[in-house]
Design goal:
It is built from 11 helices and no strands.
């Protein structure tokens, strides 16, 4: 690891400690949001801290490896799109442990990739429910851009209907959100 990356990580951790919110962290823990470390910092503040640094592939990779809520979120902000290849996306998605990171990774990174549609469809067909959740949240961004062809629409509807019958509430919610966006874009296209 480069020395500058080590220094940036130390700076980031110092900022996180300075902005720690124990009440929010405890509330998340009680709500079942499980992280090894959670500073309880609100997402806009995480974005503000990340804005102090240039997007950097090595830094994002190192941040993602940590099981710290804020560092995972910050990694999705600081990862440059042009150095984030499909194989790496598949590695990262396996490291998503909860819905909050799934949603923010889809918003900040996965949904912005030129190959987001391919990822999303591969992920919604996964056996792992959290990977499916990531796929549906990524698909939300693809749907908003109107990037599905007719074949993809049929596959999406089949997969989403199966997910809506799942016993996993997070998966049902993610699939329902994607279906709602799909329906909105279909109505807009008909107008």
């Amino acid at each position: 690891m480069k020395e500058t990356t080590k220094l940036h990580i130390l700076e980031i951790k110092k900022e996180l400690r300075a902005n720690m919110n124990g009440v929010a962290s405890a509330a998340m823990r009680q709500a079942g949001v499980d992280y090894r470390v959670n500073f309880g910092i609100e997402v806009p503040r995480i974005h503000a801290i990340a804005a102090e640094f240039e997007p950097d592939h090595e830094l994002a990779q190192e941040l993602w490896k940590e099981e710290v809520r804020e560092l995972k979120i910050m990694a999705t902000i600081l990862q440059p799109l042009d150095t984030f290849f499909p194989e790496l996306a598949d590695v990262w998605v396996e490291g998503v442990r909860n819905v909050e990171v799934a949603q923010l990774a889809a918003l900040n990174l996965f949904g912005r990739l030129t190959y987001a549609s391919d990822l999303a469809f591969r992920w919604i067909a996964s056996e792992e429910e959290m990977i499916q959740v990531c796929g549906y949240y990524t698909l939300c961004h693809v749907l908003r851009r109107g990037e599905l062809n007719e074949r993809s629409v049929d596959e999406f509807l089949d997969q989403a209907n199966a997910a809506l019958a799942s016993s996993n509430a997070h998966l049902r919610t993610a699939a329902r959100r994607a279906m709602n966006i799909f329906e909105q874009t279909e109505k807009a296209a008909e107008s």
